Amino acid sequence: MDTTVPMLLITANVGSIFEDPDNMLTSWVAEFLKVVTEKRPLFMAMHCQEVGGKNYETCMAHVNDLVKLLLGSEELQCYNRLRVYLDEDFRPADKFTALGNFYFIHKDLDNITLWDFDESKFVPVNDKQIHAGSIEEITTKEKDKFPQHFFPDHKWSRKGFIRTRWCINSRVFDLINIHLFHDASNLVAMETTPSTFRDSRERAFDYLLNRFETDRYQTAPHFIFGDFNFRLDAQSVVQRLTTQTTPVYVKTSKNELKKIMYQEKGNEEKIVLTIEKKLFDHGDKHTEAFIVDNGKWLEEFDNELQPFQDRLAEYPHHFPPSYPYSEDIRDGVVYMKTRLPAWCDRVFFSHSAKQLIDEKEELVYSVIGPEVCMGDHKPIYLSFHLFCGAAAENGDTCGGNNKSPWELQLQPPTTSYSDQADPDTRFIRVKQNGSTVKVYRETTV
Fold it and tell me: Which of 41, 255, 323, 376 is 20 to 30 Å from 332 by CA-CA measure?
């Protein structure tokens, strides 16, 4: 008989909270814990992007504060196993992604194992481990940046992925954290449909999916959640907003386009919309236009997932665009006038993964902290029940009576990896409520 496990998957671009940790960290964690308390998952995964913030050279130290707040919270004491992967080493530009994966396993959840990508076998998860700094040699995750030619202008940025593979009871699935390229200029984004930025994201995402489908590991059902930076069709949205206007083009001394102002017809003093490279200002209607009715009128312009619909799916999002919100701690419901709001932060899943979701149980796809300042990105979560027994149809198994490539090859149970650690790796033992948290830090960044 099949069993189900309550799951909570969260994606959170956390860059803003490290820019103002004194004011934002505590309230951000409080909103996160509210959702955990409400949903009570047995398995929880949080995928973070921009760990350490935009000024990561100076702000990376604040990541420890986030970890301490999470692990010290009363709400998370029932999670007695933990895996954390924090890519904090910003020195190698060709490797640094600023991604962070957090996995919390409840004391009531048994029979869970984690894939070792080097040994190609599942290993037990019996303790709490935090891998931080340089995590290149950690074999229970796969991490990479996109090849350099995928990056706009071939310039490195913090874009890439971290994948982990899990087995609960007899069910195998991948959890993938991803950060794709942003729109560098509003003016360029609205020049064509699709935009050049969308083309770059599509090529990189297609490359990544092909990689997962053709690498040496058998393809497993997968959940991909992160900051995709998917944007609306800017050209079409601007046309909708400016039907009764006249555009005025402002250029630089070098005859380069600097600004477009859309004046209301018959009233030149009324500016309906102003667009610059990093300005998108819809005047006094700015937030209302995009947040009313959860931005439903914008859905027809949200089409970057379309080329991948034969491979991925998503539940309808009944929440406003997740970016770019004000970073003013006093206001959590106002959009900044920097970019056209969009659903950048998403939870996607393969069609094989969708078959593992029990849609007869409660299923929620929503936002964390809808009325609280969470930074420029609102965290997004998917709460559901996962079929974990061997009886689920068309699923992969990792044990039981069926012979399958996923039969477990378990290492002997162990509670310490210190004897196997690289001699240059330093780790700290931290006691929390009687359990040890092993913090592996290979660098001092």
Answer: 41
| Residues 219-255 pLDDT 10s | 999 999 999 999 999 999 999 999 999 999 999 999 9
Distance CA 230, CA 275 (A): 19
Distance between CA atoms of residues 386 and 362, nearest Å:
11
Residues 120, 140 contacting (CB under 8 angstroms): no
Residue 390 contacts residue 31 (beta carbons within 8 Å): no
Contact, 388 vs 402, CB < 8 A?
no
> pLDDT for 15-57, tens place per residue?
999 999 999 999 999 999 999 999 999 999 999 999 999 898 8
Encoded amino acid at 439, one letter? V
